[in-house]
Amino acid sequence: MSFNPRFRHLSGHPGVVVRLDTELVVRYRAVDREFVWAPAHVVDTPAHLDRLAESIAADGIRVPLRMGFNTSYGYLDGNHRIAVALRLGLPDVPVELVEEPADAPRGHGHPMDGADLDVIRAAIEQARG
Fold first, then answer.
1. In a 10 Å sphere around its CB, with 0-12 CB exposed, 13-18 middle and 19+ buried, how is residue 128 labelled?
2. Alpha carbon 6 to chain centroid distance?
3. 104: which of 7, 29, 34, 97 is 20 to 30 A away, CA to CA?
4. What's the confidence (pLDDT) of residue 82?
5. Which SUPFAM superfamilies does the record cross-reference, listed alphabetically (predicted)?
6. Cβ proximity of 127 and 96 under 8 Å
7. How far apart are the first and last CA of the chain?
8. What beta strand segments (E) does 1-129 contain?
9. pLDDT attached to residue 7
10. Helix residue ranges, H only, 4-113
C-alpha cells in the first residue's frame, strides 16, 4: 500500500482487521455524514447514504473502516460507512486498526479514551493470536 497524502494522518502500513463495537468506533469519526454532507462535487451524500445502506443491509460492510490510533488520538476513515452502521443499528463493524507513531499529526483525530485504547489493543492481540 502506498502513502496517500489525502490521508496523511494514516500510515501506509497495513493494520489488523477486527470487529469493534459501533459505539466505540463512532467516537473517532471526523463528521456525522447524516448532518454534515460531503461537498456536492465529491458525492451526493443523501443518495450515497441511501445506496450504501441498501448495500450494507444486504451484504454487510465489505470494506473495513480504517482507524489510525496512538495513545493520544484516534483517526477514523469511513464516515459514510459508520453513519450507515448507526442508521441500521449494527452492533459492531469491521475496522482495520493501524497503530500510528506518537508524533503523528492530529488531523481530524479525536482524543483517545484510555478504556477505548485498552479495547483496541486487546482486539489486536486477540486477532494476532
1. exposed
2. 15
3. 34
4. 97
5. ParB/Sulfiredoxin (SSF110849)
6. no
7. 24
8. 16-21, 65-69, 73-77, 92-99, 110-111
9. 44
10. 22-26, 45-59, 79-88
